[in-house]
Amino acid sequence: MSAADTLADQYAAALAQRGVVLRDDFIEGARALEDVLDPADLERWASVAADLAAQSLRSWEAAQEFFKASPQVATVLPFELLMRWARVAEHLCESSPLIAAAYIRATPAALEQIPPDPDFDIGIQGEFLTEQTISKTDLDRWAEAGERLHQGNWKSIALSVLFFELSPKLLASLSMEQIDDLIDVLVILAERSYQLAQTCLEAAPDLFAALDFNDREPFLQFAAALSRASWADTRLYFERGPDLVVRIEAEQRGAFLTLASRVVQSSGRQGFPHFMETANALGMIPPSEHAALLGLAGTLARRSPVAAMAFLRSAPIVLQRITADQLAQWVEPGSRLLFDDGNIEGADAYFQLQSTRAEQTLTSLSARVELQAIHGLLRMYAKALTGASIAIRSSEDLVEKGIGWVTESMATTEGTAIFLPPFVGVYPEQQSNFQCYKVFTTHQTGRIEFGSFGYRYGIEGAYAPVSVTEREAALAPRERDALTEMERYYDLFPQRTLIASLFTIAEDTRVDAQVSREYGGIRVWLRRLQSREADRRPDVMDQGLRNAFVENLLRASLGRRDAIRWPAPLMPTLETALSALAVVEQPGATVEDAAEVAAALYDIASILPNTRRNYDDEEWEQPPADMGSEGQMPSGMGQDQREMPEGEGDEEFEAPQQPEFRGDFKPELVQLLSRLRDQQAGDDGEGMSLSREQVMDMLEKSSEVSLSEQAQGEVAASMGAFLTNLEKEAQAAAQAQKKKQQQQDGEGDADDGEENNADLPNEVTWSYYDEWDFRASDYRPRWCRVGERLGDEGTLEYYQDTLQRHHGLVVETRRQFELMRPESFRRIKKLEDGEELDLDRAIEFIVDKRAGVGPLAQIYWRRNKVERDVAVAFLMDMSASTDEEVEKPRVNERPDGNFTGDPRNYFQWLAERRSRLIAEAPKRIVDLEKESLVLIVEALEAIGDSYGIYGFSGYGRDNVEYHVIKDLGEKFGDKVRRRIDKIQPIRSTRMGPAIRHTIAKLEEYDAKVKILILVSDGRPQDHGYGRDRTEKEYAVHDTHQALVEAKRAGIMPFLITVDKEGHDYMKEMCSDVGYEVVDDIEQLPRRLTSLYKVIAAD
Amino acid sequence: MTSSFKQMAVEDFRLTSEPYYLPIADEVQLFETAYDQHIPVLLKGPTGCGKTRFVEYMSWRLHGHLNRSGNEGVPLITVACHEDLTASDLVGRYLLEGEETRWIDGPITRAVKVGAICYLDEIVEARKDTTVLIHPLTDYRRLLPIDKRGELLEAAEGFLLVLSYNPGYQSALKDLKHSTRQRFIAIEFNYPPRDQETEIIRIEAGCSVEIAGELAKLAEKVRNLREHGLAEGVSTRLLVYAGKLIANGISPRRACQTAVVWGLTDDSEVQQSIEEVVTSIFPE
Ligand SMILES: Nc1ncnc2c1ncn2[C@@H]1O[C@H](COP(=O)(O)OP(=O)(O)OP(=O)(O)O)[C@@H](O)[C@H]1O
Ligand SMILES: [Mg+2]
Fold first, then answer.
1. CATH (domain of B112)
2. By residue range, what is the domain housing residue B65?
3. Same-domain pairing of B160 and B267
4. Does residue A857 sit at the B interface (CB-CB below 8 Å)?
5. Pick from A219, A303, A459, B152: CA 20 to 30 A from residue A840's CA?
6. Closest partner CB to B269 (pick from A376, A836, A863)
């Protein structure tokens, strides 16, 4: 009998637990151990194993695993440690045999991962063990770690079991310390949700294996912070984190995660979204910049981790506009806010790009010039140069229209608008980039100013006589009349692309020459850009001969004859061509000259074979500097066809790429477009309207239509779409023109105007305003969007009813206001000089003088004109809260309810009163606002002051609704009456932007005294008007700031509120601005008028 | 000691040499005929386009019409009208002198008496009641009532009333009454076409033709901005100033900046676009 059997018998009782017989497993384990352990040790093992099995009801499960695992473990661990392991298992088993089983089961694999312990006493165990000897402490810690997950319930047991199961993998990438950290996270998560903890744990092995060694620690650190601040996000972090982290340059990941942990600690739930955004943002920046960025961020983080993260998030946007070297300069003002002023909120806003200062710093540092910033300037510039109203647009817009232009980075024009690239950043100085824009614009206005689109068939140029018309005879008769003059011209040439390219070159040459001559001031920059373009041309020697010819002409047209390379044998041809091109450079050359020149060049080009490599490289020469610089129309083709080389494989001619500042030139399309526009506007002079077929026919052969690449496949279908776009474009332009016309016509008679616009849709026009962030003490640029629209119209009844109901009050108010109407002249007396002698004073004076008193000779008078020149804007709160009913426990009659007036009006009064008592529905605040309006309108009409009435409401900063009930310049009439009826409670109260918009309106209006009266029912309030829903200060400060802006603009603001709690915040909101809290809401109409009298008196 | 300035009564002032005036259209002939026929003239046009110069020139030119000596013009009395200009400012008033009152004639009375051309500059600025005063003077009667003295003055032979009026900034408030307007023939002035303006600038400023031409070009471009942020186009007067600065050594860009850009507007965006036009035309 083997030792194993003996031992099995010895412990038979212990090994038979609850019907489970462990004997076989035991024997198997013991047998395997016989070779490894000496008998005494084996005996000890058996005793421990038996104890384990007998420990509790279900400890057999752990014991079974123990028997199985022991032989393997024993080969790795010295016996002492084996025993220690067994004790740990026993200990675990006390709390849960399942956990113990998992622990034991995982041990052999785990041991392979746990590093050997250098402190272990080698001497006793022999050398061969040293390599594999495992730290005793590690084994303990590992077990303890798993045990920490166990909270006594089955879910926690499952979690702990899972941990041990996954341990071998985890230990492959994490140290014991890191395992502890992971457990910390899991423990916190488990308090909230075992499910969540389990998911994270399941994700952990692969996740950490994927992470770089150095990233694991910080990753865990952030996880720890996150689980504490915003536990629910942890799962997402475990899922996506590794992908996000790898976007950051390897060396910097640690620093970034550490920073992120700090942010999470201070900003809670926002922490994780910020982390994701920031990591994404960094992903957009080349990794080589990361170190510098994180360095700067690190400094900021010392005071505000939030600002540091915000900085990183803004970095991609900022780096689009300034170079990495300038970054520190941009950070500077923000960090001064942070460190010197201690204005953390301000710095946060700065780095989030939500402050005007941040924007300004960026602008001043950025060399890149944005079209948006100089758009208005260029529009006026173009207007000055051409005398036409030309829109300046981004070339992206033109491409979007789908009417034949496809390149976004170039400048171009379609005759009524100039399209420019959205930004220019070619040069390192802003001034130079701006000059680029100027050259771009001037070339395009040049096309308009110098008539590039005005080609007329058969008209003589200034230098070249008409010859193209002779070509028509040789052609088949036209099937239909040409739609445009350009079409007729192009139709003369079989190779349309070739003639179009040549005409473009000739015409651009002419325009550049004219621009140079007329605008000496930009000549330098025009040359510079021409030269820059000439240096970027494709290799000419590599092209087919005809293409090379055209390419050379283009270089010549850029003023760079030195960049020309041409085969020496063919030099005479080029000379003829260059002389022809020089014709259009002469003063006063017209577009017809350009057309003739292009035709002559066409003849030369068309006999050149478009084959490559007919000549050796050495034969390509730079022509003499002055060759063909004298303008001269060619008499023949330069060289005889027989002298031309014969090459293989004639290639199709390709139009050369246009220089950026010239951009696409599409005279045929522009002429068509302008004809379509005229047609839409209904004044097609030729009396022939274009059919769709005709237009399609023309477009199909035109070389000017570029379709986007996808569309090229199905030409016919996309042509249809193209035409539709074209028509749409023409229609829009025609409508705009018509509208302008109407406005001009309608100016004289305002009354008719009312009917005219009746069916116009209620259009919304948007304006943007900054908002004041008091924490940052800076504006958030273009933060709010105000949409102005006309108020809806209701019926006239409301207005009339109100008038009737308040008849007495209305009459009284009118009379009072009429009294205020100023006399137009006032006589001023006692002047030393004036209009007329004041006889009484003169006599007095003489008397005094004789008496020796000798007063001043103030004996004249004059009349002074007193003009009342007041404009007032009423801004009415249309927020939802005005829907509230006004409580009316009205015991006392209102003052105007008691009859005190003329006895003759008694019956009227009585009737009024009765009707009021019977019919009065409960009133809402908004009803009182409306009544006040009716009253004030009557009063103002009496006094003759200009006034506007506006209502505001909205939701969020993007949608502040601004309803025009009556505009300042608008005449009072039924429309206004009807609009008053439709005033109704809508949404929130974002006062700041509404005030700012009103200021803008008043500023445009011409009056000596300007007043803004805001009527509201409570504090300013809106979604996002403050940091969170409960914060009220932000809104109050912004409103206050808007009121201050009003004062700065010379406008007198006044606030009236019916909010009984108004006194507390009004004081703050209106420091040094007039306000009144109307306690008795029903008094609003009366108070408003009487207040107005006070405010608007001198 | 002799003083360096000359002082004289307004009616004694005569032009003694021919002022430079370049006729643009038929205005000279029109004015001459009107003068002979006693038809009052209204000169309409934007500021600085040569109205005053024209009147001066005409007053010189017209001497032959009155058989006066050949080296001096018809007397010219100019009144710049302003908001507070009253009827007595024009007609005359009593002044207190010692213990007496003394009457002094206003400019219009003097003009009527000596037969001068009376030029009321910017007439719309004056008060409406003032303009009524000139009504009897401008119809066939040619009478000036002086209410305060109970007198009626008949205009001397050479008298002509000329008004100027700038329709550019007319507002509804400040428009000429129809009854006033319909007593005048209106000669419309405008900024001269480029070539003529070039000539005017060259002569007035004493600069080269090239500079004068560039300035005229600039003017044309800037005038394109009227109603687009600019109430008035740049006047010939300002161009002459710029020309003078350039002729005397100031760089063209700088001269245009001071004379043209800043003279026109305070709106910085408009200023900037004009400046861009300037820098496009004049090289550094
Ligand atoms: N046709 C012209 N011939 C000569 N000089 C001219 C002519 N037109 C304008 N000028 C020049 O323009 C200057 C300004 O003209 P002027 O003072 O007559 O303007 P105005 O029309 O009277 O302006 P305002 O309405 O401001 O009084 C003159 O001094 C003169 O140099
Ligand atoms: Mg004048």
1. 3.40.50.300
2. 10-188
3. no
4. yes
5. B152
6. A376
